[in-house]
Amino acid sequence: MTWKPDDGVRGTLEVVCDESGSDGENLTGGNTDVFAHGSVSMPTEVAAAYVQEVRDRIRSPATEYKANHLLREKHRDVLEWLLSPSGPIDGHAHVHLTEKAYFVVDRAVDLLLGDGTEALALYRLGRREFGEERWRDFLDAANRLLRVRVDGKADGPVDGFFRRVDDLRRAHPRREILERLAAARSRADAYRARLLEGPPLIPVLNPLLPAIVHTVAHWSAGGRTVRVVHDRQNMLTEQRIAWIEEQAARAGIGFAGLELVQARWDPRILLADFLAGIARKLASDELNGRADPALIALLRPFVGPTSVWGDARSWASLTENTESAAAPSPNINSAV
Known about the structure:
Distance between the termini: 46 Å
Number of helices: 14
Shape: globular
Strand order of the largest sheet: 3-2-1-4-5
Structural class: alpha/beta
Order of helices and strands: EEHHHEHHHHHHHEHEHHH
């Protein structure tokens, strides 16, 4: 089945989304190191035909198909067909990626210094110069500092984080950003005190909400107004959807609302799920130096340029762009 992207598209553009790689607030110690938010825009009947073709090609008895079906080596031809130029989703799909460890560093620097612009330099310095164990300890401590729930360890998250900062300072004295972080304990204490008063509307460590804003921004290029249909998520309450609307309005993005539906009712969500799961796995493989170059080349056209990514080598491969990905908007967690 073929169709032109302008067929039936007048006025508001409907975009259908799903995600892959959610580990709650455990971004540095969860099951995945990449979060992916996939989106597609096409008529429901076209998506249904493509999903059926995936089923016909794979011929699995499973009642629910997921990305891992396409990622199996025996189904590589189906995966290549799905992602190929002039394939089913070419020009009609997009994926926003978040490198979780970098996201944690960005949010910690933004919280403590009031400006996240130095996060990228710290992240790349850390991976290169501090040593794997010391840097991992710092990332875990930053994750604990920012998360809403305390994990019950004996030391508090603030104490633990600043011990790790001191470790880095001893390893690399006179690094300005480390000195500034060390002097920002009052901000960390104030943040934890606010959490004791009640959970924030927008958890600082949740990548889904800013990813939706970035997704709407992508599809609204050219002045289009975008309506989002999203797989059901407990995170997407009425109050948080209102926050997304507010962020879009601040950025001048046309946003016509968000509807939650169950995946089995909309084949477009299945295609978004396929793309998100595939992109998460391939991007993670690239991040860890074990990627398949041919598959990365097929994924590349779908990767959003404002993805939140800190690792220079893998980002260049994912996008053929030597510049770093854009960090989250300074206001992306302004509700915290």
